[in-house]
Amino acid sequence: MVRWVVGLCIALAxxxxxxxxxxxxxxxxxxxxxxxxxxxxxxxxxxxxxxLKVPWCYIYSTSRIRLLKTYMCSWDKILVDGTVCDVTEIxxx
Length: 93
Prior knowledge:
Layout: H1 2-21, E1 23-25, E2 31-36, E3 39-44, E4 47-53, E5 65-67, E6 71-73, E7 77-80, E8 83-86, E9 89-92
Antiparallel strand pairs: 1-6, 2-3, 3-4, 4-9, 5-7, 7-8
């Protein structure tokens, strides 16, 4: 029984610890900049606030990006040129 409780605690700590580290408040995003075809940086005015990666969608410097949430975590979705894309990584800057 003790092993089961310890295992459950470790599993929950790893899940919630990772979810917390891979989230960002994007409610005040005013723009973005192109890094590469799968990566952008989100800005609040001139201050970079988050790095966002979408490996299964192509992003171009002319793309239209639409955030669907104000607080985003890994595996949330965004729209890139009208296509729904999975965000696999988001990091606070």
